[in-house]
Amino acid sequence: MRRLLSRLVWLAVGALGATGFALLALHRGEPVSAAWILIAGVASYVIAYRFYSRFIALKVFGLDARRATPAERLGNGRDFVPTHKWVLFGHHFAAIAGAGPLIGPMLAAQFGYLPGTLWLIAGVVVGGAVQDFTILFASLRRDGKSLGQMAKEEVNPVAGMAAMLAILAIMIILLAVLALVVVNALKASPWGLFTIACTIPIALLMGWWMKALRPGRVLEASAVGVTLLLVALVAGRWVSQDPTWAHWFTWPGPRLAWAIIAYGFAASVLPVWLLLSPRDYLSTFLKVGTVLFLAVAILILLPPLRLPALTRFTDGTGPVFAGKVFPFAFITIACGAISGFHALVASGTTPKMLTRESDARLIGYGGMLMESFVGLMAMIAAATLDPGVYFAMNVPAATLGPTAATAATKIAEWGFTLQPGTMEALARQMGEATLFSRTGGAPSLAVGMAAILGGVVSGPGLALWYHFAIMFEALFILTTVDAGTRVGRFMLQEIAGHVWEPLGRTSWYPSIFLTSAAVVLAWGHFLYQGVLDPLGGINSLWPLFGIANQLLAAVALCVGTTIIVKMGKARYAWVTLAPLAWLASATLTAGWQKVFAADPRLGFLAHARTLAGSANPDAARMIFNDRLDAALALLFMAVVLVVIAASAREWWLVLAGRKAPVVHESPFVETAYAVGD
Amino acid sequence: MRWGTRTEKQEPDAKTPRKCECREGSLRVTAEAIRSGTARVLRVVREVVGAPDYERYLEHHARCHPGAAPLDPRAFYAEFVTRRFGPGPTRCC
Questions:
Q1: Can you give the pTM of this predicted structure?
Q2: Is A663 left (phi over 0), alpha (psi -120 to 50) or beta?
Q3: What contacts B51, CB < 8 A, 6 or more positions away?
Q4: SS3 letters across A136-171
Q5: Which residues contact A582 (CB under 8 A, 6 or more apart)?
Q6: How far is it, in rounded angstroms, from Cα A593 to Cα A603?
Q7: Could you please report the per-residue DSSP string of A408-447?
Q8: Fewer C-beta neighbours within 10 Å, C or N terminus of chain B?
Q9: Do A272 and B50 touch (CB under 8 A)?
Q10: What is the spatial distance between Cα A220 and Cα A210, in angstroms, rounded to a whole number?
């Protein structure tokens, strides 16, 4: 009887989800409610979690609640700490969710809301959540080893080196593109810049508080920090209205780029307690709080989706970024569906905190489902915008033309309408000078979020909500920039240490300065060129970032497949092979097109050819950048092909019986916790 | 299962090799330390954002290294921060 009831309930969930998908896909004309995106998504998540993740946990990995975890065996009260599974779920989610799942869907909305929504849901269920779960499981069985170490030990040293190179390269592109999103959001926005500038003294104060005044009192210091931040947010309005102050905080793009480069360098060389750790706590509080609030607000409002399900730009003529829906929807939305970067966190902090091995299913698979949900919220925020406004904000000025009238004509050519005065009125409402061509996704996300949050709590007004959303995005993007620069520095020091030993000393100042400068200049170059790019930079950098991130996911899935094969579970290897095959084909196609496509809007080399012999004084610089971008895309592709080849060789050797299937797991130790409660 | 209320057994099996003789086996100590609701909420918040928990460290220390003097709050915080923001990424894109 109970069994029957349970089947009926699951059938109902399935039917509800299917209805959601059908409505989203087939409905034309009248706006669809955002509720259907949420229903299709949540029904899919619940079913996938209940059935697919259970299958993986029991049949493929054989998760064993009796096996003591690293947290239990190596507990030290510091980083190896057994943590309750729901608490760790929150911790892991806060670590993996960032700007990626918010920006990607916003950009991919140029195809309409349907392709992105389908990919966010399908991609996470069979790809992203599987990747995170697999790597978390693998690292958990190996005392929390990193992805690079596992690639080296389980595949071979070549794959290990390739993985390491891939991680460093993706880091450079990631930092550049994220910093560019911030520059584009703060450019000519005194309110936004003032608020974000205030986070630096606030962080220093918090750092001093936690280090000297009240050692280790993070919650106290954060409460003070968040309060001051809200004061800075409100004061920003006053700054933007006062001519002298507004003048001081109105910065052009290149100056902002230099400021972020200097900031990244400072964060990498200064002690972590001073700048990096307080900012991390500040942004985590703001991130978790805002994401929860946004979810509640969307559930209350259930706004109608004004963007069409599909636009004409699926054919590759899109003005936000070039390329057809396949493969470009699948690399533009990287985080949210599948993100290789997660493999670094899932093989870092999190595996050291699991109380029971069986908790890995909730944390690894479930945590990624939550991130996909954040992606759906961003897609909803994008789709609730007036399509005319969406394109006016996200298309570069070089395409829209110099005036509101030329922009309206252009948008009308695409089949959307932008009423005269709409953008001016919107800019006034949001407390900005202009909202035309605010590319990068952050400003249009902030407009969408302001409408949603302001629709629930209208007191503060749209301008305050808009700048709250900008602050929220910029703060945690900058946290990624500083932490990422530092991690890049450590990786570079490790590599450089092989060349000359003293360079590998992580606390030797000459090495710290040298390697930090190298990392900062590497991403700073792409950032600066992106700022100067007449097409806004996001055009070329975001696809590169997507390709890099997805290829890192391919590396992670290669490592996962190798481990599954060596565990003697080759018959289940399709669990990781299927997403690997899809990712490799989508990403390599995208990479190939970005390099070699004949359309200069799409192909880096074709674009360089159109500039050859041009009278444009910047032509030489732009040609160099095109070629550099092409070389980088080729490097990513080559690295991932090496890892795939090295892994395939291992699978073949093991399956053909030429090599013993040995995994390098830590030995089994029985848990001291009571099993079953 | 409620947080902090689980029971545990706790003599380590002498035959199995251990990397660390001290195991985080005794969550009951934790449960007793967080009897009061506020303390419990604060502890959860700390864990979610990845903040250090000096109390928990003291419990660990008393259990696993009896006799040795624990680090003072300042030294503990300095060490914690260095470890947490060490070579690996703690935050994603």
A1: 0.92
A2: beta
A3: A218, A219, A222, A281, B45
A4: HHHHHCCCCCCHHHHHHHHHCHHHHHHHHHHHHHHH
A5: A127
A6: 6
A7: HHHHHHTT----TTHHHHHHHHHT-S--TT-TTSHHHHHH
A8: N
A9: no
A10: 9
* Residue entry with tokens 């996962």: A560
Contact A343, A553 (CB under 8 A): yes
**Cβ–Cβ of A73/B20 closer than 8 Å?**
yes
Q: Say how far residue A248 (Cα) sits from the centre of its chain.
A: 32
Q: Please indicate if any CB of chain B lies within 8 Å of the CB of A676.
A: no
- pLDDT tens digit sequence for A388-406: 999 999 999 989 999 999 9
Q: Which residues contact A526 (CB under 8 A, 6 or more apart)?
A: A172, A173, A176, A177, A180, A541
Contact between A285 and A472 under an 8 Å Cβ cutoff? The reply is: no
Task: Looking at the complex, report in whole angstroms how far the Cα of residue A95 sits from the nearest Cα belonging to chain B.
Answer: 5
The span from the CA of B84 to the CA of B93, in Å, is 18
Residue A611 has pLDDT above 50, yes or no: yes
**Residue A362 structure tokens:** 């909730």
CA pair distance A338, A333, nearest whole angstrom: 8
List the alpha helices (DSSP H) in A500-536: 509-532
Distances (CA, A) of A646 to A52, A556, B10, B12: 29, 13, 44, 41
Q: Quickly state the pLDDT bin for B32 (edges 50, 70, 90).
A: low
Is the separation of the CB atoms in A423 and A389 below 8 Å? yes
Asked if the Cβ–Cβ distance from A73 to B9 is below 8 Å, we say: no
At A665, is the secondary structure helix, strand, or coil? coil
Q: Residue ranges per domain, chain A?
A: 6-189+250-655
First to last CA, chain A: 26
Reported as a pLDDT band with limits 50, 70 and 90, residue B2 is very low
Q: Which amino acid is at A46?
A: V
pLDDT tier, A334 (very low <50, low <70, confident <90, very high otherwise) = confident
> CA-CA distance, A307 to A309, in Å (whole number)?
7
ipTM over 0.85: no
Whether residue A483 and residue B89 make contact (CB cut-off 8 A), yes or no, is yes
